[in-house]
Queue: 2 jobs
Job 1
Amino acid sequence: MALEITNNRILKFYENNPSINFEAINLSFIDLFEKLLLNDPYSQSISNFSNIPVMQNTQTKFMNELGDVFNKFRDNNTSEKHNDKQLSTILTKIYNSAEVHNPNRSNPINGLILLKRQRKSNILIDNKNSEENISIDDVQTFLTSIDEQNCNGIFISQRSGICGKKNYQIEIHNNNIIVYVHNGEYCPSKIEAAVDIIDQLSSKLQTFKHQNDNDCTIPKDMLDTINNEYQLFLSQKTAVVDVFKESQKKVLSQIDEIRFPTLDKYLATKYSAPIQKPGLKCDLCKSFSANNLKALAAHKRGCIRKLTPSVVSISPITVPSSIK
C-alpha cells in the first residue's frame, strides 16, 4: 500500500527541515498511540464523569512523551551539527586552500560535507557518528546524494562499522569513486588516506575515460585487486609506523645511556673549561643536568626555592637633627 502526503503544511514543513527523519518521527508517534490504545479511557462511557481524571492524566502523559520525542530530535540535530563542524575544522586544517561546506547552503543537510579543491575532483563526505553499525539504507541514501552531486564520495562512520562494507572498501558507482571508512574517530590521517585513494584512482579513471569516449569502466576483478592492494598498503603502513616509533624510543634510550661520569669528573679537575654534561640541563641554575624529565622537574622545584630572594626586613633609620 502506497501512502501519499497531500497536506501542504506537512509538505512545506519537511521541505524546510530536510534533516528531520520523517519515518523516525512517524514511528515515534505510532509507539505513543499504541501505548494509549492499550489503556484507552475513551473506550469507556464518556458520560461517566469518573473517567475525567483518567483522561486528564492520559493527556498529560501523552504531552510529556511528545515533548520527550521533540527534545530527542532537537538534541540529535544539535549533535549532528557539532559533529559536522568538527569534521569541517579537520578538513580545513588538512586542505588549507580548499572549500569546505554543506552541498546545500540554502537548506543544509546534516552529515554531508562537500570538499572542493583546485585541479582535484570534488568529494562528497557523509559523516556518521553512531555507535551502531551504519545501515544499508543510510548507504543507499548516500549513493543517491552522490548521483545528485555527480562527484566522488567518502562514507565515514566515526564510532562504528558499516553494514556490508569493509574498512577502506573502494567502489565505482556510476563512474564515481566511493571509499568507506570504519571507526574514523575524527583522525586526520584516516581522512587524508581516504582522500588520497580517491585522488590516485580519479586520475587513473580520467586516463581510461580519455582512451574510451563511450564509457569509463574497470573490470570487477581488477577493481577487487586494487581494493585488496590498498587494504594491504594501509595495514603495512600502519605496522611500519608503529615499528619505527617503538625503535626510535629504544634507540634514544640507548644513546642516552652512553656516558663517562668518572671521566667527566676527572677532566673537570684538570681543565678550567666546563665539560658539557649529557642529559637535560636546568635553565635556572645552568649547572645541573638530569637524566630524564622527571628528575629535571624535581630539581627545578628545589632550584626555584633556592633562587627566590628572601624578604629582608629593614629597620627604620633615624636621621640626626643636625643633618636636617
Job 2
Amino acid sequence: MADNPNSSGSAHSAGAPPPRWLVKAMTRTHVFLHGLSGGRLFNKLAGREVCFVTMKGAKSGQALTIPLMYVPYQKGVLLVASLGGAPKNPAWYGNLVKHPEIEVNHRGQRMRLRARLATPDEKPALWPICDRHYPPYAAYRKRTTRDIPIFVCEPSA
C-alpha cells in the first residue's frame, strides 16, 4: 500500500510508517479480499479510491498485484511512491523502475500503462494535482528528506 494512513485519515501514529512486514501482510489480505468479492469490495483505503496494479517483481520477475492510491491524470494515472513519508521508497518503486509495463485495474476497468518517473521539471506542476487528490502528500514531503518519486503512467503504445 503506497500510503498507510490509519482510519482517521491521518498519518500512521508517532509519525512513523508501519513496518514493511505489516504493509506486506495488509497488502496480501487486501488483494485477496478484493478478489474474493469479485472486485466489488475493498476499493478504498483511508476513504480514498485505490487501483490494483499488476507489475513484475524487480528480483523475481513474477507478476504481483498490489493496491495503490492513485491520482487520475490525462489518459492514465499518477502513482506517488510516498510510503507515508518514510525515509525509503516503497518496495514497489524498484519494480516499476525495472519493469515499467503495468496493468491498472479500477472497479473492473483495466488499462495497460507504461510507468515512468516524472522529471524534476514536471514535478512542480504534478504536486498540486496530487495534493488536491490526497492532501496528506504535502505532509509526507515535509516528513522525509528524500525526494518522493511520482510515476506518470501513460497508455502503452
